[in-house]
Design goal:
By secondary structure, the chain is α/β, with parallel strands linked by helices. The protein has one domain: 3-Layer(aba) Sandwich (Rossmann fold). It contains 9 helices and 10 strands. The strands form 2 sheets. Strands 6-7-8-3-9-10 form a 6-stranded mixed sheet, with helices on both faces. Strand 1 and strand 2 form a beta hairpin. Helix 3 crosses helix 4 and helix 3 packs parallel to helix 5. The longest helix has 14 residues. The structure holds adenosine-5'-triphosphate and magnesium ion. The site of magnesium ion has 3 residues, from helix 1.
Length: 238
């Protein structure tokens, strides 16, 4: 699905990603962990072309990601942010139906029907006409997640989807992500929730200082870390 080749990203003179090489297969469920500033968000943003590589390139299904090629696949790659990124001036239903209707994936009627179905599944059907400011953080994030589903994505990138939430709301969001994982969608999740990672992921990547230090089966990485850096990181989190 993804092939990342010698990806380098610099901001001014700061080397944020140092020659990343990575392949991600279709339907893989990947968790990325690592200390603050290690480049996790930057890598995720490169996969969505929110950042342009300084050197190297990324292929998506065999096609090199460029601003031009990205236009065709844009809708296929969903993203969920730490701070939700809902449109505050739009109601829940409009947040959900805007993109699929604008991108002609569904008619307005179809989009409304699909949105209602998703809202029922997450038990927020009564929030149809509410505005984001009326919702809790956990509710906002669950709306943001079903908003990505409205586009029928092939990939969803999650950047610390629960870091901005009060502790009691974290599980409702992680449970929804586990539900989404039953679908045939490639999912890449940056998170510090190691219990969730152990349940959700098939594979875990550990980043440190702009490089991938470990990458493998979740049990290997979590239970038998090879590098001292990962051992330290895991003991700090636990
Ligand atoms: N737009 C930018 N301009 C300049 N520097 C940036 C920019 N975005 C990120 N950086 C720098 O790149 C480095 C990596 O940042 P990044 O946000 O990718 O790390 P992260 O692993 O996601 O960290 P966190 O866990 O805190 O979210 C940091 O040193 C950060 O200051
Ligand atoms: Mg980050």
């Amino acid at each position: 699905m993804y092939k990342v080749v010698n990806l380098v990203k610099n901001f001014d003179n700061v080397k944020v990603l140092k020659k990343i090489n990575l392949e991600i297969k279709e339907n893989e469920k990947v968790v990325i962990i690592g200390p603050s500033g290690s480049g996790k968000s930057t890598l995720l943003r490169c996969l969505n072309l929110l950042e342009t590589p300084t050197k190297g390139y990324i292929e998506y299904k065999g096609v090199k990601l460029t601003p031009k090629s990205y236009k065709d696949i844009q809708g296929k790659i969903g993203m969920v942010f730490q701070n939700f990124c809902l449109f505050d001036n739009l109601s829940v239903i409009d947040n959900l139906t805007l993109a699929p209707v604008l991108n002609k994936i569904m008619t307005k009627k179809e989009a409304r029907k699909q949105a209602l179905e998703y809202l029922k599944q997450i038990k927020l059907a009564d929030k149809l006409d509410a505005y984001p400011s009326d919702l809790s953080g956990g509710q906002k994030q669950r709306i943001a997640i079903i908003r990505t589903l409205m586009m029928n994505p092939e990939v969803i990138l999650f950047d610390e989807p629960t870091s901005a939430l009060d502790p009691e709301m974290i599980d409702e969001v992680l449970n929804l992500i586990m539900e989404v994982a039953k679908r045939n969608i490639t999912m890449i999740v940056v998170t510090h929730e190691l219990n969730f990672a152990a349940n959700f992921a098939s594979r875990i990547i550990f980043m440190d200082q702009g490089a991938i230090l470990e990458d493998g089966d979740k049990d290997e990485v979590l239970k038998h870390p090879k590098t001292e850096r990962l051992q330290q990181f895991l003991s700090k989190i636990n």
